[in-house]
Amino acid sequence: MNAPADRAEDPAAEAWRWARFMLSGDRPAGAFGFELVAAGPGAAELAMTVPPVALNAFGTCHGGVLFTLADAALSIACNSRGQQSVAQTCSIAFLRPVQPGDRLIARASERARTARTAIYDCAVVNGATGKVVAEFRGHSRTIADHMPIGPAT
Question: From which residue to which does the signal peptide run (predicted)?
Fold first, then answer.
């Protein structure tokens, strides 16, 4: 068990440890090739290159894959302090089509936080153009003050 007393003193190092742990157990993230770019308290950045399996019938990236990328970034950001948190509600607005082979970057950041609830925004950006392709907002709920399992230190 990872009680608060077991946590690292350095919040940035702790966030990286939890980020690696969360991503390693996220099967859709593995299937789509999500990569951890950055992590910090209340923040995460993931990247992916759109594979052929992620395309819809129109030959562009499926909206569900964009949602999954943003949701994975939310998951890492909201669990970055070692408290077990889950998504409570999420929404996404798709702004531009994404082509096969496009490099996407999802940047999640905490906007507001109370004892058990937090709000995160996540912009999904085309890495080549810098243009936002989707905007995601997620509300998380902390369900335990510590994780039931956790990363090796």
Answer: none
